[in-house]
Task: structure prediction
Amino acid sequence: MNDLHNAPRTRIMGILNVTPDSFSDGGSYIDVEAAVQHAVEMYESGADIIDIGGMSTRPGHTVISPEEELRRVLPVLEALCCDHPEIPVSIDTYRSSVAAAAVECGACLINDITGLMGDADMARLIADTGVMCCIMHNRLGEEPYQDFGSDIMADLSLSIEHAKECDIKDNQIILDPGVGFAKTTEQNLWVLRNLKSFETLGYPLLLGASRKSYIKQTLGYEDTCSRDDATLTTSLLAAEAGYAYVRVHNVERTMHVLNMYYAIYQA
Result:
């Protein structure tokens, strides 16, 4: 995982939601066997890492207890890491207790949608364990933006400063501009128009734009699976901008598109 700073191409993070209420595939993989099978299928289709989440973070989601989140993710993590140790796994959580259990199972990356600001113990856990972390932009309060682009950069810089104060090393950090979180549709589109600007922060970047509601609000697609073509567009934009990762639901189609992109530009 630590070779991301020199990754020759954009890699794929496959999304595995073990939740009953996620916006795209809620309820599809709450069974451990089905979840593991889907993870293996994504890996065989080209995913470089599988991101497992146990609590939906869609708008209006129900906040569950850490115990319930652990009840959902641990059996899948244990089965996947035991039976398929070759598959890298990340945990999508902002709770240090869930992250700690996941790392003990074998997770090598913590994907924190709060930018390390949602749990006071998260940054120290990452520093102590040495795992990678994805720090996502997400304004947790109601503070309005004054200058949207500058404010995102400032917010991410604060998260980075917090990480370094807790002794997280530079080579542990990935940044995510946070499409779909604390942003209007136009602000999400601004992020997608300006993906390359985030490289000035000096860290590998991840784009998590798959099937999100900004696509529905822009193009009118209600069905989440019908948003895959639009998602592929964002994955190509990320590749062009040099992103280390795209986080997607449809791994196979993303792999086809990225393979063709690199065949053209690396020939």
About this structure: The chain has one domain: 8-265. The chain has a mean pLDDT of 92. The chain has nine helices and eight strands.
